[in-house]
């Protein structure tokens, strides 16, 4: 092998190693924190989301897009597995980790509405975007509705 062939071969090998290093790094970063972007929740009573009310039961919430974007959320029933809604959300951050679900204050007699969802209970989450009409219903009365029990299935 002459010098120019060796240099050409070396460039090809270096290029392949460079591309392979990006693939390995991306894979390692995706799995490092163990977050899936999805969580299963069981509600003891009906709950409300923008434009839809879920009966008591178990549902899977799945972020659509990247962790940084968090602009929409899909909701699936468990049995049978079926897409129930794709909802617009807004990214929200809290000071520290805590409960996965935060409810709006709703008047007695109004189905409790999910305000925010923190997949994996972390500090970054998604705030559900409700219409003006729905938001007005939340503020319609002084009494606060009973919030259902929420169980996170891991």
Structure description:
By secondary structure, this protein is α+β, with helices and mostly antiparallel strands. It has helices at 3-32, 132-138; strands at residues 38-43, 47-49, 52-54, 57-64, 72-77, 82-93, 101-103, 114-117, 124-128, 150-153. The chain is globular.
Quick recap:
With 154 residues, the chain is of the alpha+beta class. Helices cover 24% and strands 35% of the residues.
Name the helicity range: 10-25%
| Beta content | 35-45%
How many beta-strand segments?
10
Number of domains: 2
Q: What composes the largest sheet?
A: 8 strands, antiparallel
Broad structural category: alpha+beta
Given as residue ranges, the uncertain stretches (5+ residues, pLDDT < 50) are 9-34
Gap from first CA to last CA: 58 Å
**Helix tally?**
2
**Rg to the nearest angstrom?**
23 Å
Inertia-based shape: globular
Strand arrangement within the widest β-sheet reads 7-8-9-6-5-4-1-10
Reading the helices and strands in chain order gives HEEEEEEEEEHE
What is the arithmetic mean of pLDDT?
A: 74
What brief labels describe this structure?
8-stranded antiparallel sheet, single chain, 2 domains, 24% helix, 154 residues, alpha+beta, two-stranded antiparallel sheet
How is this fold's topology laid out?
Elements: H1 3-32, E1 38-43, E2 47-49, E3 52-54, E4 57-64, E5 72-77, E6 82-93, E7 101-103, E8 114-117, E9 124-128, H2 132-138, E10 150-153
Antiparallel strand pairs: 1-4, 1-10, 2-3, 4-5, 5-6, 6-9, 7-8, 8-9
